[in-house]
Amino acid sequence: MLKNFKRLVLAACCGVLFTHAPANAADIVLRFAHEAPETAIKGQSANKLAELVEKYTDGSVKIQVFPGGQLIPTTDEIRAVARGQVDIVAPYTSYFSAIDPAWDVFYQPMLFPDPQTAMTVFSGPVGQELLGRLSSRGMTGLSVWHDGPIYVFGKGKPILTPSDMENLKIRVAPSRPIELALSAAKATAVAIPATEVYLALQQGVANAVITTSTYVGPAKWNEVLSTGTRVMFGMGGYGLVVNTKSMEKMDDKQRAGFMKAVGETEQWNQDQATMEIKRWETYLAENGLKWYEVNAEQKAQWQAIADQVEAAQNPDAKALVEKIRK
């Protein structure tokens, strides 16, 4: 009787152990927080990274993605990943300028003739240099993800020249170069988190937005915007970073699989961004937003603003602008 009782107890204990230790459980689970909708290019790229990391680490490393600002607001992402509150973030590149002004290079107006040129540049040595500069801040720079060209979108008449911006309240992601451009155009820059922009436009807190079509479309801001002008204020994108201590938890094999996933996601993102730019510009045109191009005279006026911005750029960003031009 006693032997049978012991067998039952042992069987019950083993059952509990097996219940709490499922087969194929991940050794490492990383939390990836971002504010974008899952349909936006960043949301898609985050999900692709999670898929590939699980694949190339044989399930021993898994990424849990928290979109839509579920865990932390955009403005706190860099601090949160540096402290280890979350493991991975991909803030808009302008947010890195607060800790390294060299990142302002993304927002030099009129620097690139087209989005593809910008993506090629920031996927190369210039992007790697910027990511490497983050290594002393508790985070490891992994990749630059691309979004699309930064254009100006308005609610009423088209914004074709800097003078059309006068007295407008224009929402921008924090960006010193773009804020300088707006100041030169006698407009007011308004910093509003992405999750609050729709309501701000609806209520008149902002009259216009400087952002990408690949964000306007998924966020449905076209419901409160009516015009878009193809003047490149910069190239929208995201800096993908991981908490350094979280990275160090991986063994060599896991790290190799993780970095393979990072590399493939970067290429996927660039290919996808090219398609998404065309897709969302078409979508916006078909859903009430009218696109405008600028003529040579209007372009010259924007270039004059861009020249003022470049003259005021910090030395590190200015050096990168010169490197890009060469």
Explain how this protein is built.
This protein has 326 residues and is of the alpha/beta class. It has a single domain (24-325), classed as Bacterial extracellular solute-binding protein, family 7 (D-Maltodextrin-Binding Protein, domain 2, 3-Layer(aba) Sandwich). 46% of the residues lie in helices and 17% in strands. The protein has 12 helices and 10 strands. It has helices at 2-20, 41-56, 77-83, 115-122, 125-132, 176-184, 197-203, 213-219, 244-248, 252-286, 296-312, 315-325, and strands at 28-33, 61-66, 88-89, 139-154, 169-171, 188-190, 208-212, 227-229, 235-243, 290-292. Strands 1, 2, 3, 4, 5, 6, 7, 8, 9 and 10 form a 10-stranded mixed sheet that branches. β5 (169-171), α6 and β6 (188-190) form a beta-alpha-beta unit. α2 packs antiparallel against α10. 44% of the residues are buried. Residues 1-24 have low confidence and may be disordered.
Beta-strand proportion: 15-25%
Q: What is the total number of structural domains?
A: 1
Number of helical segments with 4 or more residues: 12
Number of DSSP E strands? 10
* SSE order, one letter for each helix or strand: HEHEHEHHEEHEHEHEEHHEHH
Helix content range: 40-55%
Task: Supply the CATH class.
Answer: Alpha Beta
Strand pairing plus helix content: what structural class?
alpha/beta
CATH superfamily placement? Bacterial extracellular solute-binding protein, family 7
How far the N terminus sits from the C terminus, by CA atoms, comes to: 87 Å
Q: Please state the average pLDDT score.
A: 90
Architecture, CATH level 2?
3-Layer(aba) Sandwich
Would you give the CATH topology? D-Maltodextrin-Binding Protein, domain 2
Shape: globular
The radius of gyration over CA amounts to 23 Å
Low-confidence segments: 1-24
Largest sheet: 10 strands, mixed
